[in-house]
């Protein structure tokens, strides 16, 4: 909720400091740059120390940086605060994912990660609408204070309600780090994460808000409602996707999701009113509910004892999309007619999603393989 509540505020808050569309994209990309740099170290660290401590550390960083962003006197300080938010997010995401994997069985992994992803999406289903409301009452900087508040509640829960699952040092097994980088399947699934992150931060969090304001003349409240509908659609399919992939494998559902998301990226640009925009955003949200399954897929592929490192590799590739998406698509948004956004960023996101989906044909699917083995081993 904290991360999404600031989405309606970013364009207008940054423009208060004289920021261009490209600079607005930089605020989203700065968050992603930090995650790219710290994802892999965080994954390695989880193999050495208690994940709960790492999670708490990440949440503390987010609280402090969000308060700093709310009181930023200029664009540079706002950008620095966003970068530190990314550092905290990297530690939190890797630690929480590793803890989750430690407490669920292999047969329920997809379902578990779908619920985990659903919990991450429940906030964005509410956050943008709440953000638009908060802006109207307290101004453009207020959502950052609410961000700090929500993460502070999460820090309380992590400190007093969460058990420690991996105390002390853990021995790494399952091959060397470079062996993971040479695994074609891990890289292809990571590229799918990159495409989804590229589209989410570059299109949904950067270009689409500008498109809604400049092309459709929506208000912050209208944009917030449409983004909440999108997150709500993703939330629904996320829960369903986990149960499906545990039964039929990860490859087919994830591929279909990526290809459908590619089509919706193009259709959103054809919006002509709040109603059509909201409908297309809802449908787009329904197509991205498979994102959580890329993490479950990576865990399927990871050697035992190397789960944290494998998740770190996946997050590094995925968060590269956090960096490239806002910068590249944010720049493309400036190439349209004066005062409006052209189709180029929408087509670019669609092409990347389609390529990522097709390439998954060449990735191993351990869940599907194990189900096939069980089926073939049955008598009759």
Structural account:
- It is a single chain.
- The protein is built from 16 helices and no strands.
- By secondary structure, it is an all-alpha fold.
- It has one domain (2-163, 174-377): Growth Hormone, Chain: A.
- α2 (9-16) packs across α3 (21-45) and α6 (109-138) runs antiparallel to α10 (220-248).
- The longest helix has 31 residues, at 184-214.
- The model is unreliable at 167-174 (pLDDT under 50).
Q: Mind sketching the topology for me?
A:
Layout: H1 2-5, H2 9-16, H3 21-45, H4 51-70, H5 75-103, H6 109-138, H7 142-160, H8 177-181, H9 184-214, H10 220-248, H11 251-268, H12 274-287, H13 291-301, H14 307-332, H15 344-359, H16 366-377
Helix pairs in contact: 2-3, 3-5, 3-9, 3-14, 4-5, 4-7, 5-14, 6-10, 6-13, 9-13, 9-14, 9-15, 10-12, 11-12, 11-15, 13-14, 14-15
Index terms:
380 residues, 78% helix, 0% strand, Growth Hormone, Chain: A, mainly alpha, single chain
């Amino acid at each position: 909720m904290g991360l999404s509540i600031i989405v309606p505020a970013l364009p207008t808050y940054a423009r208060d400091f004289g920021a261009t569309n490209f600079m607005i994209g930089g605020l989203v990309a700065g968050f992603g740059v930090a995650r790219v740099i710290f994802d892999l170290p965080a994954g390695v660290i989880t193999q050495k120390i208690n994940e709960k401590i790492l999670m708490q550390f990440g949440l503390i960083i987010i609280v402090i940086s969000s308060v700093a962003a709310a009181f930023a006197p200029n664009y540079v300080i706002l950008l620095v605060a966003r970068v530190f938010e990314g550092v905290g997010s990297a530690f939190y995401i890797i630690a929480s994912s590793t803890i989750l994997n430690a407490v669920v069985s292999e047969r329920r992994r997809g379902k578990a990660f779908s619920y985990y992803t659903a919990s991450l999406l429940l906030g964005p289903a509410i956050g943008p609408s709440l953000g638009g409301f908060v802006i109207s009452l307290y101004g453009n900087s207020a959502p950052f204070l609410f961000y700090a508040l929500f993460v502070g509640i999460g820090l309380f829960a992590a400190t007093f309600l969460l058990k420690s699952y991996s105390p002390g040092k853990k021995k790494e097994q399952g091959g060397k780090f470079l062996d993971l980088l040479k695994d074609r399947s891990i890289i292809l699934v990571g590229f799918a994460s990159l495409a989804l992150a590229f589209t989410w931060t570059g299109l949904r969090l950067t270009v689409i808000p500008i498109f809604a304001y400049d092309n459709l003349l929506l208000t912050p409240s209208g944009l917030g409602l449409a983004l909440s509908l999108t997150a709500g659609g993703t939330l629904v399919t996320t829960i369903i996707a986990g149960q499906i992939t545990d039964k039929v494998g990860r490859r087919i559902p994830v591929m279909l999701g990526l290809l459908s998301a590619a089509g919706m990226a193009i259709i959103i640009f054809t919006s002509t009113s709040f109603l059509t925009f909201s409908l297309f955003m809802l449908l787009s949200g329904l197509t991205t509910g498979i994102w959580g399954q890329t993490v479950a897929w990576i865990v399927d592929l990871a050697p035992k004892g190397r789960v944290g490192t494998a998740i770190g590799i996946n997050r590094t590739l995925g968060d590269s999309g956090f960096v490239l998406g806002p910068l590249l698509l944010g720049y493309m948004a400036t190439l349209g007619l004066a005062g409006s956004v052209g189709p180029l960023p929408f087509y670019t996101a669609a092409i990347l999603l389609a390529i990522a989906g097709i390439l998954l044909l060449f990735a191993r699917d351990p869940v599907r393989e194990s189900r096939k083995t069980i089926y073939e081993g049955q008598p009759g």
